[in-house]
Every structure is written in structure tokens, then in C-alpha cells.
Amino acid sequence: MNNHKYVAMDVDSANIVVGVFDGKGKALMQCCLKLKAQAVREFFRMLSGTVHVTFEEGTQAAWLYELIRPLVAEVIVCNPRQNKLLKAGNKSDRIDVAKLARLLRLGELRPVYQGLDAAQDLKQVVHGYEALVSDTTRVMNRLKAIYRGRGVSCKGEGIYRPVQRQWWLAKLKTKQLQQRATYLYSELDCLEELRAEAEKAVGRAARRQKAYKWLSSVPGLGPIRTAQILATVITPERFRGKRQFWPYCGLAVVTRSSSDYEWVGENSRRKQKRIQTLGLNQNYNRTMKAVFKGATLSALGKNKEFRAYYERLCHQGMRPEMA
Hints:
about 325 residues, alpha/beta, 5-stranded mixed sheet, 11 helices, 9 strands
């Protein structure tokens, strides 16, 4: 243990506050580094022994992980939502570093999977496509908000169609509102063009993955959903089995029970009572749940076997969202 060093890093947009501790938790060094690759490399090359490093998931996490991983024995990018200790008591960069190092030394950190270098290309393309989808939805919502704000009903998709735009613009009584809506229409046209290009790029990148052909054969999983699974999961080996995969996708049933045992004479036994179910787990990957829910809804409309199974579950009393 004397040769082990535990390094915790608090990262912001320009600086890194670093603390180095030994196996007993004694502070060996504290310093501030510039957020530059050369400065980070020089710092870790200076450290001797077996070095363990941790920092919280954030904007620079993937870049720092790739930079530091070849230089040390272990790098843990931890989940900040799980670090309850950091929220207790006083807070500063140096205090947070000391607490992170303590959790690292005790093995109490929840790591965030960073993935393989080979999957980064697909991951970036998929993230670009998802950002364009989100931006397109936001612009469409803003357009409808203009009309609803003037008491104009605008249900359906007709408001977005180019052939109907002049008719819809005429419903706005002032030139300023018409100009504002025109800007949004122009923005929407640009986003839809970029979205179509990104969708093609996602398909090309996904088809280069070995698992694409197998996954895309599943009912409800088209090219985009398949690419999202490949870019998010990366490898099934990161999960021990399906019981770990279901919660990651938000598909695990949460159960609650208490006072489970009773005494009968001199012996204790488990009570014969029904365990309460509280729906699906709340801590999950949003992309994966959206993919599987969307695939399920799509398959229910096209696959008779899926539809019959779903209706049978509902008939047996299961809630539709659970089915």
C-alpha cells in the first residue's frame, strides 16, 4: 500500500485542482493545473508508484480519460449523482478533491463507462444526429407557441409544410409576428436538411459495426435505433448479464418490502405475503429507454405475435405501461 497513490481531480472550464494522497489518506501534494494536455501529461509522468486517478463525469471527462489512461494504473470517471459525501459540510475545490480521494481509496465510487476508442466515431455521429433532432423539435414547438399565443389553433403537422406556410402566416395580424415566424421557418428548413444528412451518416457508420445486421433484424429496430444502441452500449461485456442490462435501460421492476420475517416458536421464517411493485426503475439511460419504448410501439403495430402477447398481459390485469 505504501507505493500506491490516489489522485483526485476537480475539473472546471479552465483549471484542474489536483490532490495526491497515499494509502493511509495522508495528503502528499495539492496543486492547480491548466486544462491543457501537455500540463496534465507532465504532472502524471512526475508521479511514481501505482497511481489511481478519479474525477467526475463532465464535459471534459472523455478527453481526460483518453489522455490519462495510458499513464497510470487506473482511471475512474465517477458518477457525480452518487457522490453524497461531496454534498455534506463545507464545499470548495480542495475539500471536494480530498473527499473524492477518500472515496477512491475506499473503493466507494460508482464508475461511468467510457467505452472503446473504436466506437467513438459512431458515438459522435449519433450524438450529432440526436442534437439536430432536439433542435428541430424545439423550433417546431416555438412556431406553434407563436400561433397559440395569438389564439390560433394549430393542431397537426400542416403548420410546418412549405405549401401551407403563407396561409398560416396570414393568420398572424402583425408584420413583426409574421417576420418572427418566417425566421423560425427558415431555421426549420436548415435543420431538416442537416438532419437528413446526419441520418445518412449515422446509417453508414452503424453498418460498419459487426452487430448491426443482427440487431437491425429485431422488429421495431430500424437503422437509427440500432445505431443508438451500438453507440450507447458499445459492448455487452460491460454488463454481467441481463439483470444488469434491464435497469440500465429503465426496464427493471422496482419492488419494496419490509418486516419480511416472523417468529414461529423458536424459529424464524419468511412471511408469505405479496411483494409490492412500484413500477420501473428511475435511474436509467434515457436514450436506451426511448429506443426500446419506440421499438415496442412500432412492433406492436406491425407484428401480430407482439400485439397478441401485449393484449394478453393487459387482459391479465397488468398496467399498459408495464406490459
